[in-house]
Amino acid sequence: MSVIGAIMALIPSLYIFFGLFDKPNENWQQIKEYMLFESVVQSLYLVVGTVFFSVIIGVSLAWLVAAYDFPMRKFFHFAFLLPLAIPPYIAAYTYGSMLSYTGSVQVFMRNTLGVTPNQAYFDILSMKGAIFIFSMFLFPYIYLMTKTFMEKQSAAFIENARLLGKGQLHIFFRIVLPLSQAAIIGGASLVAFEVLNDFGVTKHFGIASFTATIFKTWFGMYDVDSALRLSALLMSAIIGLFIMERLLRRRRRYHSATSKLNPLKRRKLSYLGTAAAIFVSTVIFALSFAIPVVQLLVWAKWTYQDVLNSKFAQLVSNTLLVSIVAITVLMLLAVIVANVSRSLNRSLLSLAATKLILMGYSIPGAVLSIGVLALFISLDHQLSGVYSWLGFGSSKLVLSMSLVMLIFAYVIRFLGVGFNAVEAGFDKIGNRYSEASRTLGIGMTATFFKVDLPLIKGSILAGFLLTFMEIMKELPLTLLLRPFNFETLATKAYQYASDEQIHQASVPSLFIITVGTATVFVYHWLGEKKSR
Amino acid sequence: MKKNYIVSVVLLTMLTVLVLAGCGANNAGNDKTNASSPSPEASPATTEAAGGSNDTSKNNNKEQVVNVFTARHYDVDSQLFDAFTKETGIKVNEIKGTAEELVERLKREGESSEADLFITVDGGVLNYAKQNEVLQPIQSTTVDSNVPAELRDNENNWVGIATRARVIVYAKDRVKPEQLSTYEDLANAAWKGKVLARSSASLYNQSLLASFIELNGEQKAEEWAKGIVANFARDPEGGDRDQAKAVVAGLGDVAIMNTYYVGQMLNSKDTEEVKVAEKIGVFFPNQETTGTHLNISGVGLTKHAKNKDNAVKLIEFMTGKDGQTLLTQGSFEFPVNAAAEKPELLKGWGDFKTQKLDFSKLGDHNKKAVELLAKAGWK
User: Fold this and answer.
1) Beta strands B195-196 and B158-171, pairing class
2) Alpha-carbon dihedral A164, A182, A202, A330, rounded to 10 degrees
3) How do B135-136 and B158-171 pair as beta strands?
4) How close is the nearest chain A Cα to the Cα of B353, in Å?
5) Maximum Cα–Cα distance for chain A, whole Å?
6) Nearest CA in chain A to B373
7) pLDDT of B332-349, one tens digit each?
8) How far is the C-alpha of A507 from the C-alpha of A387, rounded, in Å?
9) How far from chain centre, in Å, is Cα A250?
10) How far is B288 from chain A (nearest CA, A)?
11) pLDDT band at A251 (very low <50, low <70, confident <90, very high)
C-alpha cells in the first residue's frame, strides 16, 4: 500500500524531471542567453540573504528562550511562532502598502508631523525588502526546530560545560551551535525551499528570481516545455543540496547517551540583559506579527461590509476541510515512509527513495500542478470504462474534477514537511528502542505501534500542525487544481491582493491568520503540557 | 497519564477526520458526477445509449449550468454571473486560475473537458488559446451586433467583453499635458530619470511592447524598450497603483499605467489613495499617430463545450447592454458595447483614438516582446 502511495507521489515529479532529457526548443537559446544567469544570481541573493538573517534571528531567539529566564518569556515563545500564521505574500503586500506614499507611515509623517520624507527610505519593494519579508516571516521554522533541540537534546552537554565553568559565549559558539547544526540546517532548508518556491512576493517586488523566470517563460513566452525544463533544473539543484546536506549531517549524529533526558535549566538574566532581551523580543514580535496584523485590522474595518457575505463561511469551511483531509493522509504516509526508510539502515537506496519522494517540495507549485493534472487526466481516461460501469454516466473526468486531485497534490507537495518532522522524532529517539524490541522477537509492525509511536507522538502532532499552516496558505496548486466553485481563504486573499485590492484582501487574510494563530496556540499548549 | 490521554484523543480525532473526510471527498466526486448524469436510475441505459455522442436532448431534465474557466477574478464578474442566473435560471460554475494554466488544463482535458467558456484578460492569451485549438467559433448574431468586429477574433473564436487603456499618467503640478505626446517620446533623453513602470513580468507591458513590434517593427520596439529602461526613475517594482503613488511622491514625473486603476483609486475607501489619484493627470497618448494601446478582456467558447447553448446565452448577456453597464460600472473598464451606460469618470475622459490592430497579432509577438524586454534589461 505504501509502495503504491510512494510511486503515485513520484509520478508527477518524474514527469517534470524527464523533461530535462527532451530536446530543447528554439526558445531555449534565448532563455539561456538573457534570463538564466541573471535569475540564478537573483535567487542566490534571495536565498543566501534570507537564510543568513533568519538563521541569526531564529537561532539567537531560540537560545534566548531555551537557556534564559526573563519576564514574558512564555509569551514570547508563543509570539515567535505566530509569524508562521501569516503567508509571506500577504505580509509583502501589507508592508508594501503600509510603507508606500499613501500608507499609514508616510501619511502620518506628512499629515501629522508635516514632514515629507525621502522616498528612498521606504523602498521596501526591492531585494532588501524581500529578504526582510522572508526573514521575518520564515525565521520561526528555524526557531522552532532549534529551540526544541536545544531544550531537550543538548541539555546534558550544556550543563556539563556550565559545571566546567565555561562562559556563555563559549557555550553558545562551541557547544550549542555545533550540536544544533542538524536542527538549524533542517529549518534553514525549509526556509530556502519556501523562498525558491515563492512567486507572490518576488512578483510584487519585481525580482527576477528563478521561479519568476519559470513563470515568465510559461506565461510570457507560452512555452510550457521550457518552463518544465527550468523547473527540472531547479529540482536537480535542490536534490543536490538535499544530498549534500545529508552527507554533511551523516557523520554528526548526537543521540543522548542516556535514555533519561533532563531538560535544560534556565538561567536568570541580569537587569541589563533582561531589558535587552525584552526589547529585542518586542521588536521582532512587532515587525513579524503585531504591526502587519494591526494594519490589516484597520483595512478590514474599511472593507468588511463588502467582503463578509454569505459566501464567506463557505470559504472557511472549504479551507478547513481540504487541509485536514490532506494532512491526515500526508502524515500517515510520512510516518510509514520514515519508519521504512529508517529500518532500511540508511542505505543509499533508501536515501535516494526518500529524497525522491520529497522532490514535491522542491518544484514550484504551479509547475507541479501541471504534473498532477497530467497524471489525473490520463488516470481518468484509463478509468473511463470503470466509471461507466459504476454508473457515472458519460462523464469522463471524475477524479480530476473532484477534490481528490487537489488533496493528492497537497500530499505530494508537503510530504516533505511532515516527513521532516517525523524523521526528526525518529532521529531523536534513535534506533535503540526498536532494535531492542525486535531483538526480543516482536515484529516490525507491532514494534512500531508499541514502541515507536508513543515515542514520536509529539513529532507527528508537530508535523500535523506545521503542514496545516502550510496548506492553509498554499496558492498555486489550489488555484489550478480545485474543482468548480471551490474557493479557499488563500485564493480569495491572493486574488484581491494581486488585483491591487489589498484593503479587501485584509478580511480573508485575517481569517487565515486567526486560524493559524489558533493552530500555533494548540501546538504551544501541547508543548507546555508535555514539559510540565 | 494525563498527557498520554490528550495525545491519544488528538490522534483518534485525526483518524476519525480521515475516515469522515474520505467519505466527504467521495461525496464531492459523486455530486459532481450525478450532476452530469440525468438521474441515478436512468444512468445505465443512458450510458449505453450515449456512447460518446453528445446530443443535447439528454440535458433537458437536469439543472441548467454553464461551466466557466476564468482568469478574471473581480467581484463584479461574480455579480454579473449572479445577475445572469437570476434572469435565466442557468447556474454559472467557475474555476479560476491563471489564463495560461487554464489553457494548459483545457488542452490536457481535451474532449472530456467540462468547461464551456474561457474568460481572460489580454488579447494575447485569447489568441494563445485559439492557437492551442481549445476554442470554437461563437455563432450568435446578437453577439455580433453587441461587439464591434475589431474587438472580436477574425473567426469569432473569442469576443471582447471590456477594454482597458494603457495610458501615460503625469504629475499635474510638474508636467503639462502639452509636454506629452506618444509612448515613443517617453524613450527620449528629455525624460531621463523620470519614467515609471512596473516589471516586465506584467502582461500589460508585454502586450504594449508586442503592439509596438506590430506597428513599428522589432528594431524600433527594442530601441524603445532600451530607451525606457535608460529613462527609468527607479527599477520597476510594485503594481500599477504603486507607479501612480511614486509619481505623486516625486520619484518620477510620468508613469505607464492602466486607466481602470485610476478609477478604482478615485473610488477607494482610503482617502490618501483618492488624494493621489486626484493629483495625477491621465493622458491618452499617440492620438495624432497610432492611437492609445488597449488591453482586451474576452471570452471564448471552448471547443468541447457540453453546454454550448447556455454558454452562448451567457456571452450574449455579458456583451448586452445591461451586462456591459454592470461590468464597467464595477470595474472602470471601457465597455465593448456602445449602448452601455458608462461610469461618469469614463465619460469625463471623453472619446479617444485607439490602436487599430488585430489583437491576435499581440499573441504572435508576445514571445518576442518578453525576449526584447529581457534583452533591454527591463527587470
Assistant:
1) unpaired
2) -130
3) unpaired
4) 27
5) 80
6) A34
7) 889 999 888 888 888 888
8) 41
9) 23
10) 30
11) low
Inspect the interface and report whether the beta carbons of A107 and B272 lie closer than 8 Å. yes
The ipTM estimated for the assembled molecules is: 0.71
Nearest to A328 among B21, B237, B241 (CB): B21
Q: Which of A407, A377, A382, A219 is nearest to B115 (CA)?
A: A377
Q: Name the 3-class secondary structure at B160.
A: strand
What are the pLDDT digits (tens) for A265-309? 788 888 898 999 999 999 999 999 999 999 999 999 988 887 777
Candidates A96, A218, A373; nearest CB to B105? A373
B33, A392: Cβ pair inside 8 Å? yes
- Report the gap between the CA of B145 and the closest CA in chain A (Å): 31
Q: Cβ contact (<8 Å) for A206 and B199?
A: yes
Q: Report how far residue A134's alpha carbon sits from residue A195's, in angstroms, rounded to the nearest whole number.
A: 7
Q: Which residue, among A367, A97, A519, has the nearest Cα to B101 in the 3D structure?
A: A367
Tell whether the torsion through CA atoms of A62, A64, A69 and A75 is positive or negative. Answer: negative
Give the contacts of A421 (CB within 8 A, at least 6 positions apart). Answer: A334, A459, A460, A462, A463, A466
- Cβ separation of B37 and A395 shorter than 8 Å? yes
Rounded Cα–Cα distance for residues B12 and A328 (Å): 11
What distance in Å separates the CA atoms of residue A317 and residue A324, rounded to the nearest whole number?
11
- The label of the residue with cell 514571445 reads B367
Chain A partners of B112 at a C-beta cutoff of 8 Å? 377, 380-381, 395-397
Sequence letter at residue B95: I
> Are A220 and B128 a contacting pair at CB < 8 A?
no
Q: Is A72 helix (H, G, I), strand (E, B) or coil?
A: coil
Contact A34 B375 (CB under 8 A): yes
pTM for this one?
0.78
Mean pLDDT of A250-273: 67
| B327 burial via Cβ count (<10 Å: 0-12, 13-18, 19+) | buried
Please report residues of B whose CB lies closer than 8 A to that of A302.
Answer: 269-270
Q: Which helix (H) or strand (E) holds A312?
A: helix A310-343
Ramachandran category for residue B355: left, alpha or beta (phi over 0 → left; psi -120 to 50 → alpha) = beta
Test A500 with B241 for CB contact under 8 angstroms.
yes
CB pairs below 8 Å between A and B: how many? 231
Helices (H), A153-223: 155-163, 168-170, 177-197, 200-205, 210-215
Please give the Cα distance from B293 to A297 (Å, whole number): 38
